[in-house]
Design a protein that fits this description.
Distance between the termini: 63 Å
Number of helices: 74
Radius of gyration: 51 Å
Shape: elongated
Strand order of the largest sheet: 1-2
Helix content: 55-70%
Number of domains: 8
Number of strands: 8
Largest sheet: 2 strands, parallel
Length: about 1600
Amino acid sequence: MTPEIPEGTNSPFDLLEALKYTPLVSSIPLSNGTENAVPPKSVASNTPLCLSPEEKELMQRYLDLLEPNAQEVSDVQQLQFYKDALAPMLQDVPMPNIRIPVAKATHEESSFFPNSLLNPLTESLLQPSEVEFVPTDVNSGTSSSFTDSTSSTSTCLSPFISNKDAPKTAEIPRSPSTARILRAVEFKSPSRAFSLTSTPKKRQLSESGSVVSTPSSKVQRLQDVIEKQVHDTQLVLNVILLGDSKTSDCYVSFAGSHVRVISTEIIEKISISLTKLSYLGDCHKLLKEEDAISLKMIIESSLKSLDFVNSSTEDADDDMICSKANYLLKNVSLIFQILNMLPAFKKLQNEESFLFILDTLHSLLDYFFLKTMTSVDMSMIEGSEESNYRPFLSLTQKIANAFTLLSKIVHAIPLSEAVVIKVVFLSMKTITVDSSIKEKPSLIQNLPLDILKVPLFDTLQFIFSLYPAQRDFVLQEVLANFAQLPTARSTSRTFKLSNGKSVQLYSTLLVRLLQACTITHLPEDPTFKTEDPTKDLVNSDYCQSHLNSVDALLSKSRHDEYRVANHIVGYLLGRSLRQTKSDINNSFVTLTRIMLEDLLNMLTVPEWVGTETLVRQFALNLIMMIVKEKNSVTTKNTALDFFSVIVNKLLTTFDISLFEKYDLPVPSNFNDPNCFLSGVPRFEEITSSCLAYLNTLCGNDDSLENIVPYTLNQWISFLFQIRKASNDPESNYLIDKVLLKSSNLNMDSVMDSTVYTNHEIIHDYFVLSLYRSSLYLNLKFFVSLIIGFLDSPQTSLRTKSLRIISQMKSIPAILHAHPEVLSQVVSKVADPSAFVRDTVLDLLSTYMMAFKETINQLYVFIAAGVSDSSVSVRKRALKQLADIYEVTNSINIRCDICMKLLSRMNDEEENITELSLQTLESLWFNNAYLSIDPHKKYDDLSFLEKQKIKVHYRSLLKLSSDPSPALHVSLVTTLKRMLTSKENELTKEFCSRIRFLLSFLFTLLIEVATEDEGNSFEVELLHETMSTLFVLSRSFPFLFDYSQLQVLKPYLKSASNIEEQRLLYYVVAIFRQVLPRQKEIPEGFLRSLETTMLQRLTKAGSATLKEMVPCLCYLLSHLNDDQRLYKILGSCLKTLEETRKNDFSSLKAFRLIELIGLFARFGRLEKIDVDWTGVFSFPKDESTDIYVLLLNYMDHLLSSSNDDLRIHVIENMTKIVLAQPTLFTSSRMLSMLDNIFEENNVDCVSVIFRSFLELLAADEDLISEADEKLESKSNQNKKSKREQVNVDMLKGFTERQWAEGVSACLMQKYLSNILNSCFSKNLNFALLALEILQHIIRQGLANPRLCFPVIVALEASEVEELKQIAINLHTELLQKHESLVDGLYAQAATLMFSSKTFPENFVCTIEEHSVFQGTYNVLLSTKNARSRRKFLMQMLKLLEYDNEKLTNMSHEKILFFNFCCSALGGIKYLSLDEPLMILQVIDTVLATIGPTITEWMKGHFEQPYKFFSGILLCNFIHLKRYLKFVYSITDEKVHNFDSSKTFRDKKVPLRNSGLTAELLHPDNKREDVAVMCIQMFEDENISTDPIVKDELDAPEEEHSGEAGNE
């Protein structure tokens, strides 16, 4: 980007521009730089700059730096400034040819070089072809007198070269430094060239036209520059070479010693002089070899005399060590400079000398650099103000400069093996210098260590390329130091690629080494002279032989590349996948992962073309490790992880649309080389563009010299691959022609070709070339390999495979194209591993969102996840159901999704419940999803918006129309929780959304009323709307208004069929819920409503009647019409008496009894001030209480009722008692209850249980309300969410019907009946009893110890619903009353056995299923090992037998023993200590009773107990053998087990499946039992020594760490 030029004439920008043109190599003194430096675009032709004092100081510092005695500069910004200023001088740019105008001459004369203009020195350095003499007709009068003076001095010879040595002809050898010489004077600008070699006065005269520059003056100035620089350099050298070290001023005594060394000033003068001289030409032609050798020897002697290593001790002065280090680096850099500038002087290249220099650098790094870096670390930690960071930065820069010179030497000069090895060691030592601080990422970021590594990477690359014999050694050293790299990605990735991504430098080193293996120069074919050779020429033997030789060379080169790549990848993966758990190997996995990620980032960058080979080798080696059966699961897991990184990158890299974008034919089969034939011409154009781009990118950088040949070789190798696969002569001719052209490609022509500066195009071109790689060709195989692990027996591999698949960008397309893969994924929905199931759901959801037409097919698998045992899977399923809800148009699926969400509202995990609630609220009431303003009223919406609303709410309407009472209760509960879970402001917003919904529903009612009544769709919509209003009335009755009730009233009409009865029920129920919450309703409306309901009372259905009577009772009470209620009840009693006389079992009698019960339940009859005794015809009691009178009357009816009517009378008696709960404890009611429970009629008892539930539910409502008030009182400073909602208002129309002690009395009296009913064969009756038991436990109405055995016994029920409720109750009791109930498991086992019925000749088996598994899982969920220990101890007490107990053995006890053995053996234990404990007890019992029983079996055992004892012994041994097989337990483990210690839940024991043990039963033959008993006991070889200690009888010890986590 071009910077903006400031407007000021003397701005800092002008100063920088001026500095760029300071005459560094002219003979003008540098002190004149401020006068002569003028910007090129300056208006003033020769006006000195007017500098400010600050600018003068900056300029002076710059000039001081250029002088031989320049001081050290440590400021990074200034260093960069000086570097930018010097950049134009240091850049090796080509210069144009010199055009010298001369007089016309003959052809013979013009063929010779005009020696009159050039002296011998200039002739030796200048190539004649670069000087062109142009004839001119310039008037001789225009020549300047300066020409003569210049010509007269042109015959002066150089003091270093004689005339006889000067060349006499134009055939002068080409010098590569000619451009450097010509750069010193810019011939195209006479004024500027003249200004560099003359005074200001002369320049002024020249510009004014008084003096004209001539060709001879230009050449003379060039000769003056060369001679002056050679003379100055020789003077400096003579001072050193001829001076005495003891007396000469150029030698000084170093601080702290008596050693005389060359002064720093002289060293810098020599360095600057040599630098300037190198810009003018080849130094070996300008300097004497003996002088260079002497200078090098003197510098080396100075280094040896310092003895840096011995002086760099901890006690030495830091300043002195620092000065020695700086001096050492200047000398080393000067030696490297001499070697680099004089590569032709072979005597300078002494091996011993080179090794000494390298050892000196190595010592510097070991003894000083690391110490300095540590001190920088300490200064940063301590926060000291005087930080030594700047001196360290300066030192680092000097070392980097020395290493840069070293890299140039390695590239230019042949080295011995010893020197190469020493250079490699030094390089690796420096590259890993930051390993000592790799645990401090912040420090690594602040230290500029990369400037040390870059030149050393160049050095290693040059060694790798130039010395093939040392490649293995270099690789070994590079890889051996790999583990020392920092593992933090943020600190290690300091190298930025051209695509903007950052990688670590070490990654680039490996690619550079690989690219260094390629052939840089292919053999040329001299016969190939044209772009389009003939077919005969191409098919000639010479051309074919040439192509075969090129193919052989490339094959050998590729073989070397593969070997190097395999060496690198094999080492990295071998260390990463090693099975040891050391920190080094763990960090190696991270480092390899970083390396692999870096390579994948470099894969599509054109300048790192060798990355493809490394990545391909990674993929190949990983595949071998993945499919190798001997490798462990951990190794395969890590390999799969690495492999997934490659596959995911490849899937995101390749895009087949690139072929169409760049007019390339898409191959029909990428694995067939012949399919690429048609695209070869286009691929050739693309390759040429890439080569031109890379050639321009690399420039003259030697470290990038392998990139272009590597890319070209890859292209040629691809052509050879097509050529070998093709059998068509025409195609072969085309390929051979392109091969000849490519193998004879001239790099100069590449430079001249069009270069695409658009990096995106070059990137796409390079990606297109990767389609020829086996990475793309095998991509489908890579994906199928990962998918294959879906069927792996190891859970971790299945999980890893699924996660990899779910991360693939193109996995939906893969599943869609391959149904068999989709089926394979779907089959894992029921996988035993929760991680696998979770990943499968995620993958299926991604696929369904990509291909929405598959939702109907795959929805069932997502829906099944809602009921999964894993919390994570349930969460995943709920979130995915919400996504499906938004994209599907199926009403049935939407309704089912809502059902699934509602089913999780009572989940044991609170997070699941909250997620379900939030999801439902978002799906139903989020108007933002509809893109509708939430503050808009429904009447203000447009027609289109109203249609959206209809579609949106259709699922809620459909759901509410389900007649299931359980669903309605769930909906109402959920809606209320949505309201109560919000803060005040959110509550208002939620209520506004509900009002919006109500407006919509009532508008629908109005619309439906105007439509044709016969339309089935409208009828269905009417029922759905009314049912939704019913649900909302039970949830939010306070949100309805009077206008909406007016809309509802016309629907109170007679019902002639079931659908109309249901509609009437909804309308009446809405009025019942809403009327008590309305404050201002006209009395006329209420009276009209009362009259209408009275008219419908006689023909209403039973369900409608239960809603209508409470509503009528409210209206009569609100209108103070008590007398009408009195008359209604009296009329019912009177009519009932008349009916009794005629037909008491008629439907009319049923209706009248029901009306009496309902009016008594909801009419508040005690508040009516009338004499009730007059309405009863039977003998009156002393009591005048209407409820007692009604109860007595019903009791009187009960005695004369048949079975059906009797149940109906009992039901209405309970309604009367519920109106006055104290009547439950009356003698008459208790006597009736006793009779009912004694009769044990399921129907009658069910009626009583329902009344108990209603009583307990009222109690629970009041208890919950009291808890809420207590909670709000204890949190006065916090706004309770529940405080903001009136609980009475939300509960609906429920009167307080609770009296203290009634429910507790009833539950305790009839608890045994309730518990026994839980084991009823009638499922509904058992569920009813179990629901009562739930209320009893939660309200604390009975001792938990009485209920606990029943609950545990129910966990073995075959009915899943009963089993799940029992498990929940068991968990709740353990949380609240663990100390009370944890000793009752033996009693529960006995009850469990007695509740089961076994068929005749039933054979009990020990297998992988246990009736105790549910109980064990509950104990496991507490994460308390002590609870499990107590459970096992109690179960084992049931198996304890001694010789006395054997005499009481019976048929029933054997069956119970077999039941316990089967249950204990089939449990899936968490800890291995648990089966060990069982086995130890078995051994103890066998040792006690075994000898006695075997003696019985050897004799005649007529007593039944002896036979049963033999069965007992055999089954003990069966249980023992089963446990030992399943858990792979040896006798030694059993013997060494200490049962007094807490269970160790360190690792879940592996189970061997497939064994089933059949236990003996009493029906077996006695002889068979005897033989088996004796044989099995002898085989066990159990010791019968007396037992020293019975662990089961020992008191349990308390252990501090008993809570064993799962």
